[in-house]
């Protein structure tokens, strides 16, 4: 169905040399971006298509990139940003990056700013960043320790649910694969369903009873605006990585599987066996398949990138045609004679 393909027809950065990552070239450019004035931003980026959005998005992306590079030299500047920048979105991103970089100085900054921060969302980001670091050394915790913390959080009984669990916000969007219903708690995106709310309401209510004590659903476009924007960019072939807070509710095993799914890069594929091995449960292939099918946030946690060891598409919650379209758009539709997953 050609009309459903993004404008770039699924071509990703491997088809364009100028889009290939160049860490040594790009990394030194990031810190100066944080100090751009409005005038300097207009002079440098005023001709770009995204310039109308202002400097905040590109500065936020620079902060996130510093975290992904784990650039220890950026810690003092990120600390100043947390202390001085009036924009909560940038302060939250700085907290996340400090949690990625780690170290005693990063831990000291997080501890200091938690006591001062007034914005609830930024304060939550600061706490999450601190929880990813060893309290004694500031070193990033292992993946197993982080997953265990998520498991404990996911099993909090309803009587201890926070204020953020009393309402689940939702909105709908049209997409090349049909209507989507997106839902979020106060902590992050919790559900994506294939279909309009009126069709999926019973499924959503059941999930709410299971994980949020029967929280009410409230239509709220503003709360879901960012995820809709990022999904649209994905469908247009302009985004390959999502940068969104998630609130995943599931068993310890499901959280492990979903964590592994989230690590599958755009344009790549894994088999159920690959995922089972990645979480240290090589014999639990069938159970991995079950957890994969219960992924509450498809597309963002890309369960569509899991196929059979023989290259077959196997199942998908949204249907096989949608899975085929997604992989075709990502230029990764498998050749069964070539795949050796």
TrEMBL record:
Annotated catalytic residues: 303 (nucleophile)
NCBIfam families cross-referenced by the UniProt entry: ogt (TIGR00589)
Annotated Methylated-DNA-[protein]-cysteine S-methyltransferase DNA binding domain residues: 252-330
Keyword vocabulary terms for this entry: Cytoplasm, DNA damage, DNA repair, Methyltransferase, Transferase
Protein name: Methylated-DNA--protein-cysteine methyltransferase
InterPro entries referenced in this protein's UniProt entry, alphabetically: ARM-like, ARM-type_fold, MethylDNA_cys_MeTrfase_AS, MethylDNA_cys_MeTrfase_DNA-bd, MethylDNA_cys_MeTrfase_DNAb, MethylG_MeTrfase_N, MGMT, MGMT_N_sf
Catalytic reaction equation(s): a 4-O-methyl-thymidine in DNA + L-cysteinyl-[protein] = a thymidine in DNA + S-methyl-L-cysteinyl-[protein]; a 6-O-methyl-2'-deoxyguanosine in DNA + L-cysteinyl-[protein] = S-methyl-L-cysteinyl-[protein] + a 2'-deoxyguanosine in DNA
Cited function: Involved in the cellular defense against the biological effects of O6-methylguanine (O6-MeG) and O4-methylthymine (O4-MeT) in DNA. Repairs the methylated nucleobase in DNA by stoichiometrically transferring the methyl group to a cysteine residue in the enzyme. This is a suicide reaction: the enzyme is irreversibly inactivated.
Principal localisation: cytoplasm
Organism: Paenibacillus pini JCM 16418
Entry GO MF terms: methylated-DNA-[protein]-cysteine S-methyltransferase activity
Anything else known: This enzyme catalyzes only one turnover and therefore is not strictly catalytic. According to one definition, an enzyme is a biocatalyst that acts repeatedly and over many reaction cycles.
Domain Methylguanine DNA methyltransferase ribonuclease-like: 168-248
Matching PROSITE patterns: MGMT
Listed EC numbers: 2.1.1.63
GO CC aspect terms: cytoplasm
Keyword Cytoplasm: yes
Entry similarity comment: Belongs to the MGMT family.
HAMAP family: OGT (MF_00772)
Cellular compartments annotated: Cytoplasm
